[in-house]
Amino acid sequence: MKTNIIRLVMLVFTAFTMLTVTAKPKDRVVVAYVCSWTDLRLPDPTLMTHINYAFGHVNKTFNGVDIQNPPFLEKVVALKKKNPALKINLSIGGWTSGNFSEMAATQANRTAFARDCRRIVDKYGLDGIDIDWEYPTSNEAGISASPDDTKNFTLLMRDLRKALGNKKLLTIATIQDALYIDFRACVKYLDFVNIMGYDQSNPPMHHTTIHRSPLSGHISLEEGIDAHIKNGVPPEKLTLGMPLYGRGDHSNKILDKFMKTGFTDGRYVERWDSIGEVPYLVDKTGKLVWGFDNPRSWAAKCQYIIDRGLLGGMYWETTEDNAQRDGQMTIYESLLKNNKGTIPLKHVLVLTSGKSSVEASQVVDELKQLGMKRHFDVTVLADDAAYTPEYFDRFHLIYQLNADLSKLGNEARKEFETYVDASHGSFFAAKDTAVKGWDWYNTFSQDLRVCPLNQKYWSNTAKMGRNLFCIGNNAKAEEVVELLNL
């Protein structure tokens, strides 16, 4: 009996150990697309394992590659200095990117193209190539196509692998349906497959639900993963793509900026699809007008990636994220740091005079207590402290307690102005005070209403979205936090 118990304990321990090992693969990846036309802001290279630089294109003679914005590619490659383990690929293709069909149709063109890919990899110090042909045999994107494209795609993968060798990466981006490609024939040449888990429908349907729900378009993420596995791609070679952007009427300026500002002008209400596990905005009739992701749904998708045993996640694209990088932080913390779906903390910056006072200490302590309950942290910055570039953008709320803002240098002032003008976050001033020598701030503060938080204006403001710019004399920290839904 004792021997049997020992054996049982050993079996349970072994099973638990195996689960622990397989639950967090050391090779899990997070792939970030960085676009050639977004060269004003480089990503934080510590938040991902791979970057796909978009885009290169098949040239007009079908035997080589043209790169968009090569100087920016060089800057992206330089990010390896901050993260030596970072892998950087050139992504070739994209929606409406043509010449694939002609290039892949002949052995001579495929060989020349593959050799040019290898030349580019060596020239720029890249780690591999990502092929984003949208899509073989389809002319939906206005590109040429042939019934032979699927067969030729496999031959192209073979020739690329031969030219790149086994030490360089070869990946592809695919549509959720797993159509157009013979995966069983070509997966042996690939390191992994990036499923583009977005853009599958337009409002009033949601474009990126995890599970099928009444709001799903023609396919859900779950169905897309199943389709790839059914067609021969093992889970450990799949990454699930997530959008950092919303889908709807981009000509509507409020909706178009919503992902960065959270501002709805009181016209739309945010709701949650409990089946599809995604948020969305509805108009006054209850109709879905904007489908998007937020930290809650990104975390749910990451948990689904873990539960399904996939290689990792992918997202399009870094500059679609808000100033605090909520999407990238959620995916990083969930897949690379904690090995479970994780909603990151929000961040509050309190500006103080640096002089000790009972009143200021009470407000800071109250905010910290609230933060433990409502999932945000608090950083205190004295007005005479040195300013770090892009510092304000780290915070969802800047709480001006009693700092002398005239002490802010020119760089800090300019970045604060951008923070407010572009709605990068929320600003609350505890008191209405002018700032000597800062005309912009004085004009800005004159436009704010002084309100004690017990007027209707505040509840109306709350309906507008996450952003708030206001002055509230005698306001309690809890009231501000409640209003902003931190």
From TrEMBL:
MF (Gene Ontology): chitin binding; endochitinase activity
Gene3D superfamilies: 3.40.50.880, Glycosidases (3.20.20.80)
Domain named GH18: residues: 28-338
EC number: 3.2.1.14
Family: Belongs to the glycosyl hydrolase 18 family.
UniProt xrefs under PROSITE patterns: GH18_1, GH18_2
GO biological process, one term: carbohydrate metabolic process
Catalyzed reactions per annotation: Random endo-hydrolysis of N-acetyl-beta-D-glucosaminide (1->4)-beta-linkages in chitin and chitodextrins
Protein's UniProt name: chitinase
Entry annotated with the keyword Transmembrane: no
Signal peptide annotation: 1-23
Coiled coil: none
UniProtKB keywords: Glycosidase, Hydrolase, Signal
Listed InterPro entries: Chitinase_II/V-like_cat, Class_I_gatase-like, GH, Glyco_hydro18_cat, Glyco_hydro_18_chit_AS, Glycosyl_Hydrlase_18
EC primary class: hydrolase
